[in-house]
Amino acid sequence: MSILIDENTKVLIQGITGKEGSRACKEMISYGTKVLAGVTPGKEGMNTEEGVPVFNTVREALAQFPEINTSLIVVPAKFALSAVKESIDARVPLINILTEKVPVADVAVMIAFAREVGVRVIGPSSVGIISPGKVKIGSIGSGDIASRIFIPGQVGVISKSGGMTAELSRILTDAGVGQSTVLGIGGDLLCGSDFVDIAKLFEQDRQTKAVVIFGEVGGTYEEKLADAITQRQITKPVIALIAGRFAETLPQDTVLGHAGAIVSKGRGSAASKIKALKEAGALIAQTPEDIPNLVKQVV
Amino acid sequence: MKLFEYQGKDLFKKYGIQVPHSVLLDKPMEGISLGFPVVAKSQVLSGDRKKKGGIRIIETKEQLPGELNTLFKTEIDGALPGHVLVEERIEYLKEWYVSFTYDTDKRCPVIAVSGKGGMGVDSATIVELQWLQGHWGLPSLDAPFREVAQKLLNLFEQEHALLAEINPLFELDNGVFIAGDAKVILDDNVVDPLFRPFLDLPGDIAILASGGGASLINLDALILAGGKPANYVEYSGNPPASIVEELTVKVLSKPGLRGCWTVGGTANFTDIFETLSGFVRGLRRVTPKPTYPIVIRRDGPRQKEAFEMLERIAKEEGYDFHIFGPETPMAESAKIVVQLAYKS
Q: β-strand A210-216 against A152-159: which pairing, if any?
């Protein structure tokens, strides 16, 4: 088992002929992911290097490949809303947005649409999702990195930061701790799925015995996870690494790292997140290298 | 992008929200075309300007030059004002608070309203907006200024604001509402998509960190190891060498540096050869030539090629590089740069 993606995942890539899209397509296929079709408006009829057919619209791609159950969005930021809306209208149950710098107003609309029809959005600014040994979507684990740093196992990893998905997984793998599913939820102010949404999936997943999260200063998603642990919605052990403690010393409203990381007083600071998670019973890692030992304490 | 009060009020005017009559000054003046008393406000981005001496009530024309002189010379959180906004003083019945922002708990836009203007959002009632026929709809309000709220919502949507706040909103005895202050933050993804956070910090170890998350965790690690960071900057994604080159020049041009830490985790897709090539090109442009220790810790696609290139450059051009891959934790490399930088 794993969450979100597995052997039955059949992917449509929106923005498949772009630089990031074509690279992701190639690497996903070489990892064993079933990429059935792509969409780039105006490029209908062509095939990618790997032989994936390209369509003008999601609807046309779905007509040909009704078994598609996952959309990967790799279009420029200003087209992200309309691309996501196409997949929502087609009721694709899982939509993973890699695009960065999507206007927050557009993300709010995407979330409203997705809620209305009951599809899951992950991202924007997600690095992708990998269920090691089975399948991956997005830019996570490029090239030979995937087989080197991700191995199948019992730990679920949820990260606001794309880069840290790789760093944390490498540290876990080097310590002999495998992963069930690893994903980036993005660090934007608004995200389609937050820590709680994903932790609930890990809670239901028999393979997953513990959840590792990488959080950051800004927003309230970490505090929400602490609340969910306290309310026993999440009962599996949670190990958290929270970045941005230094920001306490900076003026208010300083924007750091990701767009969601606006320093504000009270909730939202790294200290408030660490305190909330600790009180809820999560284990707090001081550095990435602490994580495998903490995992071994609870698994 | 956070706007100054006067910029926010210009937007208010554009959307039909009333603001006090005002004059914007860029230097102290002897006289102004407003009746006294007036309120003079330092145009800085910090909150709590009143407590920090950035707002002064001026009763008479005679007091004006002296008061303005003081305001223009008063630093607020380390910043001198470029402008002072002088406004007529408003006689009001009541002060309100109203704002639109995105709520990360509910993940949608919300309106916050309070009958205690000046107190801020803490005492406000927060209500979610509903998406209706292509727009965010205004809920029913427990406040008499629906029209002003709708105008502020129009501004919030059309200007791509992350925050549009009026605090206080003055209610006059004739039923008119006037915005006493303006706090507007615009979405950088729309108004400044090339924005990269950069902070000048008071320390002496320069940092070039890649990855939004890793850069934060690494600054924490450097401080924990006893290092004093000279700056905060990060490059995310898979930037071309030219971006890294320019950032390198910017960061390493600061005088008095004792070390440089180029750090990142194991990258998913960042081309390590490309980004470190940019670093080297930037390094060559820095004068005087850096002789301090430069600790590089990186992993990811094309790491091997990148490290061979760095070792060759160090030998040929005489840089004090200390190069580490994934076998050395990022936090460990923080300790190494601190030891090397401060050993003499």
A: parallel
Helix, strand or coil for residue A97?
strand
Instruction: Name the domain boundary from B43, B71, B88.
Output: B88
* Structural domain range at position B177: 94-191
Residue A212 annotated among the catalytic residues of the structure: no
The neighbour count for residue B135, using CB atoms within 10 Å, is 12
Q: What is the pTM of this model?
A: 0.92
Asked if B3 reaches chain A (Cβ–Cβ under 8 Å), the answer is no
Answer whether A28's CB lies under 8 Å from A137's CB.
Answer: yes
Confidence of residue A261 (pLDDT cuts 50, 70, 90): very low
**Closest Cβ–Cβ partner in B45, B46, B210 for A163:** B210
CA atoms within 13 A on the CB side of B185: 17
| Cβ atoms of A226 and A276 closer than 8 Å | yes
List of chain A residues whose C-beta atoms are within 8 Å of the C-beta of residue B136:
108
Same structural domain, B298 and B177: no
Residues B266 and B182 in one domain: no
The shortest C-alpha distance from A299 to chain B (Å) reads: 23
Query: Best of A104, A167, A217 to disrupt the B interface by mutation (most B CBs within 10 Å)?
Result: A167
Q: What is the interface size between A and B, counted as CB pairs within 8 Å?
A: 179
Domain-located, residue A137: no
Position B269 pLDDT exceeds 90: no
Name every chain B residue with its beta carbon within 8 A of the beta carbon of A109.
131
Is residue A259 over pLDDT 70? no
Q: Is the pLDDT of residue B197 over 90?
A: no
Residue that terminates a domain, selected from B191, B226, B247: B191
